[in-house]
Design goal:
The chain is mostly helical. It is flat and about 70 Å long. Helix content is 75%, strand content 0%.
């Protein structure tokens, strides 16, 4: 595939995205019933909580990994054999 073909495909994709965005912005918007709005707000709140819990878990995992790495580096500096403490990942 030539560079020109790639550029043509990219241009066509951009034009399609712009067309869809313009059509969406011109669509008639109807008001959302209050019950449905409340359900959406509740779902958004739950999603925020789930995302925060995931971020907290990731942060804790990083802290644990950093502490483990620090200990391995200390052991190396002290001349200890660290190979038994390392786990090989299998792909």
């Amino acid at each position: 595939m030539s560079n020109e073909d790639t550029e043509d495909r990219d241009r066509e994709l951009r034009e399609r995205i712009v067309s869809l965005m313009q059509a969406n912005s011109q669509a008639v918007r109807k008001p959302i019933p209050s019950a449905e709005l409340q359900q959406l707000k509740t779902a958004a709140s739950r999603l925020d909580q789930m995302l925060q819990a995931t971020a907290d878990a990731d942060q804790q995992t990083l802290r644990t990994a950093a502490a483990r790495l620090d200990q391995i580096l200390i052991d190396i500096r002290e001349g200890k054999d660290v190979s038994p403490n390392l786990k090989r990942r299998r792909t």
